Amino acid sequence: xxxxxxxxxxxxxxxxxxxxxxxxxxxxxxxxxxxxxxxxxxxxxxxxxxxxxxxxxxxxxxxxxxxxxxxxxxxxxxxxxxxxxxxxxxxxxxxxxxxxxxxxxxxxxxxxxxxxxxxxxxxxxxxxxxxxxxxxxxxxxxxxxxxxxxxxxxxxxxxxxxxxxxxxxxxxxxxxxxxxxxxxxxxxxxxxxxxxxxxxxxxxxxxxxxxxxxxxxxxxxxxxxxxxxxxxxxxxxxxxxxxxxxxxxxxxxxxxxxxxxxxxxxxxxxxxxxxxxxxxxxxxxxxxxxxxxxxxxxxxxxxxxxxxxxxxxxxxxxxxxxxxxxxxxxxxxxxxxxxxxxxxxxxxxxxxxxxxxxxxxxxxxxxxxxxxxxxxxxxxxxxxxxxxxxxxxxxxxxxxxxxxxxxxxxxxxxxxxxxxxxxxxxxxxxxxxxxxxxxxxxxxxxxxxxxxxxxxxxxxxxxxxxxxxxxxxxxxxxxxxxxxxxxxxxxxxxxxxxxxxxxxxxxxxxxxxxxxxxxxxxxxxxxxxxxxxxxxxxxxxxxxxxxxxxxxxxxxxxxxxxxxxxxxxxxxxxxxxxxxxxxxxxxxxxxxxxxxxxxxxxxxxxxxxxxxxxxxxxxxxxxxx
Length: 625
Fold this sequence. Notes:
Number of strands: 19
Structural class: alpha/beta
CATH superfamily of the largest domain: P-loop containing nucleotide triphosphate hydrolases
CATH class of the largest domain: Alpha Beta
Largest sheet: 8 strands, mixed
Radius of gyration: 25 Å
Strand content: 5-15%
Strand order of the largest sheet: 4-3-5-2-6-7-1-8
Helix content: 40-55%
CATH topology of the largest domain: Rossmann fold
Shape: globular
Number of domains: 3
Distance between the termini: 29 Å
């Protein structure tokens, strides 16, 4: 194989046994470097771990690597465990972090780990997991970090050299193999420079049909249309019903793929799949997190066939999933970032724009930005597209479970670990003091509430160290004996309440009598937790339990068809599946934490068995796929 210079440089370092961080644009070919690491490990008789930020990417890599490396590939994602003793293991970063802290001996056979999309260390919700994985990386393991542009890659490498006392090589590639051509739809005209927009006559609104016709004349399909809202993605796709992007032969071809795929994934009677069919026949589709995972997979497969000419999707379609197109359209250059709407981060923009231009097929990729000058000004547009990408910064906020795992090993020396963090390396003096105070406050809480006694973890502490994310609430309920008092339905309802995050202004509906009692206990327990966290200035507060899915969960555990349980919640069906799968993962962690002689352990196993069926069974979906 002939490698690009940056690929060859990376491979040369890897062959010398050196860890490497690679920063290169989306579509530049970083995966080829990962495949070299895997092949080398297999030839040397050692194992390799591949971590990905999202389960969809983990599943795709499992399929891709299976084609090349056959039965040597396994996957662990919390809700999936296939071929777990394989030499090539794909797993979420959370699973790897948990292994490093709780069972480090399980990593002995692995000589390399690949961190894909390592800029996730900058993610507010999950960045801590990536940082902890790198901090506590076993000494015997080398690593390959892959990412799109990281402006401060040298700083990140210097930090890792400091804490691991070994050389870390950086490889930077700024050029895309397929260059991007930017155009703008402003006042319903297509222009190549945003400054020209000032001269255009006002009053002409942007029309999507005119833009689509323009792209059709330019032979710009297939096209990914990014829109920051699930409902709008569906509405825009439906608006394309007046177009037909496929000739009769192509229509027959795509339906000859769609119908059998729907049958394979038990979607033939699903309303969402039936609603999608007339769009698919025209070469149009939509894709977002609110859809059934199986239907999303069907659409992804159709898109790779190149018969889907326009797909309307949210930004998750850009996260590592290998779905390139000739053209990318941005419905807007603003999106909601947690608490407010703001212009896109440059790094996020290029993560999505990078899907334009198929290597080996297109000479260039085309990116169209729809600009409404009453909502975004020209300078903001320039900052998004031509500004420097944001630096990767630490989001460290160590969990109670991590503190318990570390305390078990290091006891009072636990605070000597903070200077090993990227947060310490990047922060100012007052920020370091506050981070250390936060760790000390969390440890004080754990001691005051009986998780640690006489420098050892108590039974409650041993339980809590296994359950990441919901440690205090679950452990307090466990200590109160609540798990002994509830049946399989209660366990499922509780697990769903722990993982569920309501949308803004979303309220719980259809709360059963059993759920109301459990909710009251959870609310009383959570209030005590919140009070002590507030007193100790611990933030963010532990997550609250929300019972929005309690009726849907109860009917599901009773064996009700999925198509019928959606009426018991205002949550999108894809989200229901995701939360049910998260419930399976949480129940497995609870089951692992409970002593073997407890009758609750068997009850948890039975709840998982009944819950993890049909569309919820992610392992079944992966096998059938």
